[in-house]
Amino acid sequence: MSRIDRASRTIAAAPATVYDALLRRDALEAWLPPDGMRGRIERWDPRPGGGFRMALTYLDPTGNPGKTSDATDVVDVGFADLVRSERVVQTAVFEADDPAYAGIMTLTWHLAAAGDATEVTVTATGVPPGIDQAVHEEGIASSLANLAAYVESAR
Question: CA-CA distance, 23 to 152, in Å (whole number)?
């Protein structure tokens, strides 16, 4: 059976608001990096078939070696599918020499209205074997918490 990493969170914002935060460069730089990291988008093309390149830097790389260098992960992300207020499907490829991080990971962000809020579920498939599942799910949960804080503070 193939591995599926997953995390979800209810966010006190409308699906359209959450969707917009998934497709704005400044928003992604603010909330996508999990705790302990900061991110910088180097290329941006927010359309189906487009994507972005992000450099993620560990604030303290001790015990957290980067995939690209000692302190960084560089990832090329493509937008495979965009359905306003419902779904964002991304493909992610890490820049790494280690074959344990090779391959195309697919991240699907499902948005479902839940009253005045949005249930956001992130499902990752094709996760490179070098990425520990528990650590990855913790990172996704951290990004979701950041996303919630980002959109809820704008209300």
Answer: 16
Residues 135-140: contacts with CB under 8 Å, at least 24 apart? 136/5, 137/5, 137/6, 137/7, 138/34, 139/34, 140/5, 140/6, 140/7, 140/34
Q: Where are the alpha helices (DSSP H) in the chain?
A: 15-22, 25-31, 133-153
Model pTM greater than 0.70? yes
Element (H, E) at 79: strand 72-83
What pLDDT digit, counting tens, does each position of 42-101 carry?
Answer: 999 999 999 999 999 988 867 766 787 778 889 999 999 999 999 999 999 999 999 999
Exposure class string for 26-64: b at 16+ Cβ within 10 A, else e:
ebbbbbbbbeebebeeeeeeeeeeebbbbbbbbeeeeee
Number of H helices, E strands in the chain: 3, 7
Query: Which structure tokens are listed for 25?
Result: 């460069």
Q: Enter the DSSP assignment of 47.
A: S
Cα(123)–Cα(61) distance, rounded to whole angstroms? Answer: 26
Phi, psi of 136 (to 5 degrees): -65, -45
